[in-house]
Amino acid sequence: MLKKSSRITIYCILKVTQPITLTYTLITTLTYTLTNTILKTRLNKTI
Question: Tens place of pLDDT for every residue, the chain, 47 residues?
């Protein structure tokens, strides 16, 4: 019984945290790309 309930708990936690992790990864990647492009264009403008 305990194993089953703990398994369900883990499943629930995963179900909740997975989208959050995905969103976080997406936001981080987007921010990184944006920062890179901004920096590159600024560098190009100065040169």
Answer: 568 888 899 899 999 999 999 999 999 999 999 999 999 888 887 76
